[in-house]
């Protein structure tokens, strides 16, 4: 019998003042085509990969609708990038995510290390991914205002929101991990959703870069897909 594989991926906060500039190799999200894939994939049914998930919104002083709208908007970005992907929101949960319960869950928890914003946990059998959870750091200050997938909609925050972490951007990166894209660590990929650092007030990860789109299409090939739409945040 093939053994079950467990993996953990974290998203960290960049503490330096302001956003880190991308290196010349990837000057912008429109042209940076970097990505890295894991060996695990979700099984497809009739060519479609459906990933049901639940959200535990309790904790960050928000309303359930605020949290779920931001998370659904993050899922929509990946669905738009690859028509084979379907994230299926199945309502709220009041449980702490736990691998092995056969539910994909997103929840705020008080147990993450101070420098960790979010942590993706996965369970697989061989190369087939069976389950993914995301833990969000309850101790961090969060914002919940979704932005649309269009040019100019996801500019970095201003005013008081500069002290907050954008939930849509964070979850977009985490859902990329769910889909089998590795977190990227170099400054050269700083403009991509799958880069593993984020600053307070940053919203650019809410829109996918070229490498993010190419990565999800390499993980789940979609023959006949139209040219990817890459937006300027």
Structural class: alpha/beta
- Taken as a percent bin, the fraction of beta residues is 15-25%
The second-level CATH architecture is 3-Layer(aba) Sandwich
The biggest sheet, with number of strands, parallel, antiparallel or mixed sense and barrel status, is: 7 strands, mixed
CATH topology: Collagenase (Catalytic Domain)
CATH top level is Alpha Beta
Question: Rg, please?
Answer: 16 Å
How many angstroms does the end-to-end distance come to?
46 Å
Oligomer: single chain
Overview of the structural elements:
By secondary structure, the chain is α/β, with parallel strands linked by helices. It has one domain (4-219): 3-Layer(aba) Sandwich (Collagenase (Catalytic Domain)), CATH 3.40.390. Helix content is 17%, strand content 24%. It has helices at residues 64-81, 167-178, 210-219, and strands at 4-13, 49-56, 85-92, 105-109, 116-125, 128-137, 142-143, 165-166, 197-198. The strands form two sheets. The protein has a seven-stranded mixed sheet with strand order 3-2-4-6-5-1-9, with helices on one face. The protein has a two-stranded parallel ribbon with strand order 7-8. A hairpin with a 2-residue loop joins strand 5 and strand 6 (128-137). Helix 1 crosses helix 2 (167-178). The chain is globular, with a radius of gyration of 16 Å.
